[in-house]
Structure formats: C-alpha cells, structure tokens
Amino acid sequence: MGEKNKTRVVEFVFLGFSGIPDGHIYLFLPFLVIYLVTVLGNLIIFTLIQLDSSLRTPMYYFLSHLSFLDICISSVTVPKILVNFLRQEETITYHQCMAQMFFLLSFSGAEAAILAVMAYDRYAAICKPLHYSRLMSPKVCTILALATWIWGTLDSALHTALSTKLSFCGVNQIHHIYCDLPPLMEIACNDARINELVIHITSLFVGGGPFFFIILSYGFILSSILKIRSTNTKRKAFSTCASHVTVVIIYFGNALVNYDRPSAGYSLEIDTLVSTMFCIIPPMVNPLIYSLRNKDVREAFRKVLESQGKLKHQDTMNYGTRDSL
Fold first, then answer.
1. Stretch 84-97: mean pLDDT, rounded?
2. Which of 69, 181, 270, 285 is least enclosed, having the fewest CB within 10 Å?
C-alpha cells in the first residue's frame, strides 16, 4: 500500500505564486533580469580571476569557486521558474523535483563549506603570515576546494535518499516555488519525523560546523588585528575581511530561516519570500559585494576593459591600413 501511494504522484504543483495567477507574465521579466545579472556578475568575477595573474592567490581561487557555486544555485531554481511563468503552469515532475532538490542541497552545502575555507584563508593570512605559503599551498587549496564539493554532495545524497521514501498519497501541491526539504515533508502522508530529525542533526554539521568555524577564525583574526599598532594596517586587514563577512551573514542568516524551522512552516507568502531570499537574491548580490568593496577586483576589471579597448583600437587601425592599400 505504501509503495502504491508513493508512486501515485507523478508531478508536483508549486503554489508559491498562486496568489497572483494573472501576474506571472509580470513576474517573468524581474526574475529574468535577476537571473541574467546573477550569471553575468558571477561569470565576470570567475573570468577575471582566471585572466588576471594578480588574482591568482588562494583567496581569489576560493572566490572563483564561490562564484561558480552561485551560478549553479541560481541555475537549479530560476530557469524552471521562468519556464513555468511562460507556460503559466507551476508544475514539475517527481523525478525533476528530486533532481532539483539534490543539486540545490549539494551546491548550498558546498557554499557553506567554501565560506568556511575562505575564513581559514583569512586566518592564515592575518594570524600566520610567515607560514601562509605553506598553509595555503596550491596542493592544500585544491584539496580544500575538492572537500567542499564532497561535503555538499554527501549531505545532499542523504537527504534526497530519505525524501524518496516519503509517500504523498495523491497530494501534489507544494507550498513553495521550487523543490526543497521542508515543503515536501509538509505534504507527506507518512511519518516525516525522521527526515526532520536528520535535517536538524545535519544542520549542526553541514551548516553549523562551517558557521562556528568561521566565528572561531574571526575570533583569532580580531584578536590579531587589535594587536597591530598601525592604523592603516588595521584598516587594510579589516577591509580584506569585510566582503567575506557580509556574504557570510547573508548566506547563513537566510539558511537558518529556510531550514531550521518547524515542518509546519509559516504562511505561503512568508515561505515564498524566504525561499526567494535564500536561493535567488544572495547569488545575485555576492558579486556586487566583492566588486564594490574589493579594489583588486575593480582594478582587474579596469585592466581587462582597457586591454579590450586597445585591441579594438588596433583592429580599427589594421582595417584602416588594409583599406588604404
């Protein structure tokens, strides 16, 4: 009976935007703009780091992974939302739902880990400057980056496997705008307490572990900075951490609200707002935070624009020379 009930649902219906049934066409444009800005902004950061030799340091190496993860997180959710807006049918198949949730959790878990690694990088640079090249060697950076992806994938595989055991008994309306753990548990007709317990336990490790590691790292960083006598050196040390701290607050603040709450959730409107804030807004603002507050990134962007301008000018001169001949 349980297996029969579980396979009865072949697709889910999202209710996140059901309050504005005639407004989907008006929502399409802002969501499209958000997605394009997200992909373009993070792609610019990622490309600059690959092109500019001055950005080939551990800090920017991990920033390139963060930018790539932000593109992935946004691409898992927003394109499907855009397609549903055009079709005016907020649906997703069961298997697409499981796949969307798996990749969303994988990338989100990896992002939490990469933020912790970036905090460790700042700790090594400020608190252990004489040993920095050894602590953050290319081999160590590669291992740490690979570990963040494994970290997120293992957590996601566990949650997705448990989610496939849920039975829905014909109920297919999800109070959300994409497939995620809390809304799926809410409509399950079998006991989802194990799933909810696993969420809270893994949150302590996958989310809480990196967060407390970040807090610990910045505790040491703050202690080291306060011992510096030079005001300019203090200001420079603080500025190298400001962007990362801002991103950490935005990410973990939204993750806490999105996952560490009762399975009953809040109202549909609040759920929609929370889900939007977690997976759509942060990937868009992260490149803005790093580009606006980071002089190195702005300088690299300026150099790329100047080099492109010189190339165009050279091409124009070449064409003029050919025409004269």
1. 88
2. 270
